[in-house]
Amino acid sequence: RALEADIERGLERDEFELYLQPRVAARDGAIVGYEALLRWSHPERGMVQPGDFIPVAEVSGKIIDLGEWVLREACRLAADFPDHLHLSINVSPVQFRHPDFLKNVEDILSASGVLPRKLELEITESVLIDDDQRALVLLGHLKSLGLRIALDDFGTGYSSLSYLRRYPFDVIKIDRSFVSALGEEETANAIIRTIIDLGSGLGMRVVAEGVETVEQARYLTEAGCDELQGYLLGRPQPVDAAITAINASL
Ligand code: G
Ligand code: G
Ligand code: MN
Ligand code: NA
Prior knowledge:
The protein has 250 residues and is an alpha/beta fold.
């Protein structure tokens, strides 16, 4: 059976699940929020990772329904979060480009009653490439709803700098390829310092992804990075485990 046909059935049968990975303040290690990462508990294939089904869902268009499910589920979870924690969700370029995206977001937000500032949308540079003007207007609308916008995988695109100048991001997430090269490639250290200074200078929060070692965390913190995310700080975990940790910390 094709994975594509299974996605619809999976949605009907409630086989999708969000895992939550913590994001912490570099300064004191306090959890400031979580990133929602989609998982699929497939009846025959077992746990399917997003890298295996998101591309299929994007080509087939099923990502629209799937993305709406993610948004609804994330709003439901974030509504129960304490006010100081946010939840980030990944938005596919296909979803972002869909004409009904803004309306869907508005509808789902208002139906859930969640405080919009508790939600952050992560987009990648690829959504900005083809229709500059539409993306700019759309981001403005999303921000006016109170949502925060993060630029994910920063540094991997073609014109990262011009995007920062043009679009109103609240957060930039340094791609993990730079973090993993820290200490191994001289250039990675210089690039990371430059990204942090640039983001801070523009008033954005700078988050490092894929932090796996104490040395990386120390370097990033010393360089002025605001927040850290990665296996060192916590792996993506089922919702129940994250909620238990949140309640224990209150
Ligand atoms: O969780 P993992 O590291 O396997 O995620 C792999 C990729 O899938 C990442 O690029 C991540 O951004 C993407 N991804 C995870 N969850 C979602 C989701 O809910 N929606 C979209 N569009 N992408 C997701
Ligand atoms: O594209 P995006 O940044 O949304 O991708 C997030 C992906 O990175 C998820 O699949 C998540 O499981 C993965 N991830 C999170 N922390 C780490 C880490 O410390 N190391 C590695 N290799 N992957 C990570
Ligand atoms: Mn992400
Ligand atoms: Na990323």
